[in-house]
Amino acid sequence: MAVINRTPDSFHDKGATFALDRAVGSALRAADLGADWVDIGGVPFGRGPAVSTAEEIDRVVPVVEAITAARPDLVVSVDTNRADVAAQAIVAGAAVINDTSGLGDERMAAVIAVSGAHVVITHSVGPPRVEKPPARYDDVVAEVRAFLSDRMARARAAGIPQERLIIDPGHDLDKNTLHSLELTRRLDEIASLDAPLLVAVSNKDFVGESIDRPRGERLPGSLAAMTACILAGARIVRMHDVAEAVDAVRMTEAILGWRAPARLEHNTHPTRNV
């Protein structure tokens, strides 16, 4: 899953794909590099100036329309916690709503239920875009798992079939670095829930703090975190650096026996006596 931010203040790309043509072009390049899925965001999760619902719709809907017209085979999701944005994005062609609030909008589940779209239910605490107190958990993994299980039940009760549910433990979302590392170590406990597991670890602060690297220098650490998550049960990985992530994923799949090597040449020729 490639990340496409149509925002002027995203934590990683700092608005590099805010312009409509750049956002669409970046999504299509990601697909050419091997991404199966692009995730379009119109409002960052972290604190910052308010963005109205109308402005968020104006940011994401034209991108979705352009991508789905150009690459109908590409999965397109929209990263939003607003039901009204989700509804418009689905009409535009989005197949997935990536809800970082975990169905915090009481209308979100109903909107998705009648649409046929999938939903990513992500763990976070309280509304996005606001300052919050320091993160505290007695057992972060147990609490994240309980939250996700409860929100999955809420989604099913609203009419979303189990097969359209995806879960995300929300690395760094209202969590400190120790919490995110603990989630990664014990990710199999989250993966045991009956839904595909998505992880979003790319360039996050828990990576930077773990290896003492600023933003822009976290690719190796991000790939290591991503690989650890795949080994623990993640099946969708949300990454900024598509080419490098695709190579790392394909190598991991080859090691696990899920993907045949692209070619087989080394030590396969008969020995010749000269």
What can you tell me about this protein's structure?
This protein has 274 residues and is of the alpha/beta class. The chain has a single domain, classed as TIM Barrel (Alpha-Beta Barrel), CATH 3.20.20. 42% of the residues lie in helices and 11% in strands. The chain has helices spanning 20-32, 53-70, 83-92, 108-113, 140-157, 177-185, 187-191, 205-211, 219-231, 242-256, and strands at residues 2-5, 37-41, 75-79, 96-99, 118-122, 165-168, 198-199, 236-237. The strands form two sheets. It has a six-stranded parallel β-sheet, covered by helices on one side. Helix 1 crosses helix 2 and helix 6 crosses helix 8 (205-211). The protein is globular.
Whole-number mean pLDDT: 94
- Largest sheet properties: 6 strands, parallel
CATH architecture name: Alpha-Beta Barrel
Structural class: alpha/beta
Write the H/E string, N to C: EHEHEHEHEHEHHEHHEH
CATH homologous superfamily assignment? Dihydropteroate synthase-like
Number of strands: 8
For this entry, what is the oligomeric state of its chains?
A: single chain
* Low-pLDDT stretches: none
Q: What percent of the residues sit in helical stretches (DSSP H or I)? A: 40-55%
Strand arrangement within the widest β-sheet reads: 1-2-3-4-5-6
Distance between the termini: 51 Å
**What is the C-level CATH assignment?**
Alpha Beta
